[in-house]
């Protein structure tokens, strides 16, 4: 087939659901295919061919019945899609041959029938489409390019217009990629935000090829699939996908909640910055590793730290040879050169990959090794994660001192069951929805007593805790609101205590099996004093907040209160409390009271601010006492050079502290390298 051919095949299709501009958006199957051959040279129009297609699901929407005039009885005896496509190929080939031609141009009234219907359905049913469906001309685009000032025209009108111009050369030839090409992406590469989407809900074992298959019919940019990893380096079910232009991105958004296997996939807009953060890299070693074309990547996890290249090659065996031997191995290491136990391997074909995956969970040394399919973006992401120095470049170099909000906002951890837990909330539910759900019981909620729990990715988890004025009120709410509906979902309401709420908010679990405390409250990490008994600290303020921006709103500046000068504290306004359940990744914000983080903030004081704040404090004697107590100042020696604030806080998790002091250049001349001071 050639784009300059004067033999046209006009192609049309309809589905069992939405048609027109929404064709393919509801994932319904094809039920009708129509085509007709047009000879531009002879100005002749061939026979109109119309074939019904039997779908797997014999259900037609009212819109489909109205627009096509078809009924279930019309399609129940029709042939399936694969046989109809064979008839199409045979019919077109014979007619084109009878005209003395060897090629033709496929014309469609809209690219949706090719990109959003035919290719996705063929991919799901494992059908091989004829080559002509990988290149086509959009009649409307071609017409508007030739006649930009013309109004809208119908399909038959467009065909008749082109019949009148036998020498016309079609310029708007669109193609569909045969396969997805993997590749590396540089952090300095410009990425248009209008070409990127975020896919959510992916199976954890899905690869970039599986994602490309989900978006079959749309052209993904080279290396344009980036699988996202969680804090533990494992896939979190999300991916960022970059398309060749905004038109393909818009068509991808129409596949929101389409299915990959038995799972539906959510598709949202994303930005180029998000894509580069995941897929971009600057390492020359990674660039050289990924420079080999048409290679399949396998990730190995759990390798012994002493494993060598030769041991890995021997483990994989001769039936799965690695591309270029040891050059096809990339060991992931920390900045100081220590191995992480991860490695990436290149293979030249799918057969070698299948042989390698059979080694999954086999033993190397004294450890079992996990093997997974991987992508170029995952290689970049893993290397970026391990080779970066956390937090040092993003935190100010000045002392960090915790500042608490006014004490009435801190709930005491008691066994009184004056709280309720809401489970199964819609992910789009907000504070207003919860108050509306509570109805007349809203008046019994304590001030600032609504705590919404976020998951590890910072999105709503479907849970919330509400503090009531008494246990009786909490019992009444649990009785009357249990399994009430909120936005087409029923919500479970349970009575619980403040202690149980606090433990869940700090990363523990509360389910039918009982109460599991967070890691910070296990016996080996128990703090020396009661966890909820947070000491009242003097008001030491400054400008910048330690919390990351996604967690909290912008801090308010301190305001002078005449009635109570002792409480002129800067704090994040405790509006609807949003608490992130960080599980094992919350150490940067620990310790904090068992409440929403909007009641506690960390502020960085500029040089000299600590001494000035002590002098200006309403309780300077108390502040001086804290700094002058024996053992209040801890000096840490022998730390790794890349140690950050997050590492220090993680080391002291479970113990109360006042702050972490990073050495200034002047002070560093008096203190040896690799040292930090902790208050």
From TrEMBL:
UniProt keyword Acetylation, yes or no:
no
Q: What is its main location?
A: nucleus
Keywords on record: mRNA processing, mRNA splicing, Nucleus, Repeat, RNA-binding
Q: Which GO terms describe its cellular component?
A: nucleus
The record's annotation in InterPro entries points to: ESRP (IPR050666), Nucleotide-bd_a/b_plait_sf (IPR012677), RBD_domain_sf (IPR035979), RNaseH-like_sf (IPR012337), RNaseH_sf (IPR036397), RRM_dom (IPR000504)
Q: Where does the record place it?
A: Nucleus
The protein, known as? Epithelial splicing regulatory protein 2
Provide the GO biological process annotations: cranial skeletal system development; mRNA processing; RNA splicing
TM ranges are none
């Amino acid at each position: 087939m050639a784009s300059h051919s004067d033999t046209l095949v006009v192609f049309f299709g309809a589905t069992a659901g939405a048609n027109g501009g929404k064709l393919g958006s509801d994932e319904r199957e094809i039920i009708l295919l129509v085509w007709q051959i047009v000879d531009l040279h002879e100005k002749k129009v061939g026979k109109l061919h119309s074939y019904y297609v039997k779908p797997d699901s014999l259900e037609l929407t009212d819109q489909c019945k109205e627009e096509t005039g078809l009924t279930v009885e019309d399609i129940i005896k029709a042939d399936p899609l694969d046989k109809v496509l064979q008839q199409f190929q045979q019919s077109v080939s014979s007619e084109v041959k009878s005209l003395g031609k060897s090629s033709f141009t496929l014309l469609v009234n809209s690219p949706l029938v090719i990109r959003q219907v035919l290719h996705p359905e063929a991919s799901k049913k494992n059908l091989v489409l004829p080559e002509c469906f990988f290149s086509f001309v959009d009649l409307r685009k071609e017409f508007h390019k030739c006649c930009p000032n013309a109004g809208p025209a119908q399909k038959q009108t467009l065909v008749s217009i082109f019949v009148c111009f036998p020498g016309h050369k079609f310029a708007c030839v669109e193609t569909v990629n045969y396969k997805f090409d993997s590749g590396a992406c540089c952090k300095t590469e410009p990425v248009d935000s209008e070409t990127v989407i975020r896919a959510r809900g992916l199976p954890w074992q899905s690869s970039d090829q599986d994602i490309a298959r989900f978006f079959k019919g749309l052209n993904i940019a080279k290396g344009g699939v980036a699988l996202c990893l969680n804090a533990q380096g494992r896939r979190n079910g999300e991916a960022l996908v970059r398309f060749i232009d905004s038109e393909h991105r818009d068509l991808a958004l129409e596949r929101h909640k389409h299915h990959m296997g038995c799972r539906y996939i959510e598709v949202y807009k994303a930005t180029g910055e998000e894509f580069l953060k995941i897929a971009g890299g600057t390492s020359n070693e990674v660039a050289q590793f990924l420079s080999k074309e048409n290679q399949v990547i396998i990730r190995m996890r759990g390798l012994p730290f002493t494993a060598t290249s030769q041991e890995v090659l021997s483990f994989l065996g001769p039936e799965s040879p690695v591309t270029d031997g040891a050059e096809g191995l990339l060991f992931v290491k920390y900045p100081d050169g220590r191995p992480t136990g991860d490695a990436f391997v290149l293979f030249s074909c799918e057969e070698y990959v299948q042989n390698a995956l059979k080694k999954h969970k086999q033993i190397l040394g004294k450890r079992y090794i996990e093997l997974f399919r991987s992508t170029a973006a995952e290689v970049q992401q893993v290397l970026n994660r391990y080779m970066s120095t956390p937090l040092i470049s993003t935190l100010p170099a000045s002392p960090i001192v915790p500042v608490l909000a006014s004490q009435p906002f801190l709930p005491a951890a008691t066994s009184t069951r004056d709280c309720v837990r809401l489970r199964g909330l819609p992910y789009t539910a907000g504070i207003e929805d919860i108050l509306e759900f509570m109805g007349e019981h809203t008046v019994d909620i304590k001030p600032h007593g609504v705590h919404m729990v976020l998951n590890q990715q910072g999105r709503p988890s479907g849970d919330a805790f509400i503090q009531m004025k008494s246990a009786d009120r909490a019992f009444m709410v649990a009785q009357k609101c249990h399994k009430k509906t909120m936005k087409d979902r029923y919500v479970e309401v349970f009575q619980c205590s403040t202690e149980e709420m606090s433990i869940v908010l700090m990363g523990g679990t509360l389910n039918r099996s009982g109460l599991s405390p967070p890691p910070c409250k296990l016996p080996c990490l128990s703090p020396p004093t009661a966890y909820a008994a947070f000491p009242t600290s003097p008001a030491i303020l400054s400008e910048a907040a330690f919390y990351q921006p996604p967690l909290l709103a912008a801090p308010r500046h301190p305001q002078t209160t005449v009635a109570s000068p002792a409480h002129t504290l800067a704090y994040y306004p405790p509006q609807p409390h949003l608490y992130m359940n960080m599980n094992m990744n919350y150490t940067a914000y620990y310790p904090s009271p068992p409440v929403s983080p909007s009641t506690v903030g960390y502020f960085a004081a500029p040089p000299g601010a600590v001494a000035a704040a002590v002098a200006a404090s309403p309780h300077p004697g108390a502040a001086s006492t804290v700094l002058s107590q024996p053992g209040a100042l801890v000096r840490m020696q022998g730390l790794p050079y890349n140690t950050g604030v997050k590492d220090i806080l993680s080391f002291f998790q479970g113990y109360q502290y006042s702050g972490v002091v990073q050495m200034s250049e002047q002070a560093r001349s008096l203190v040896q390298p690799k040292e930090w001071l902790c208050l």
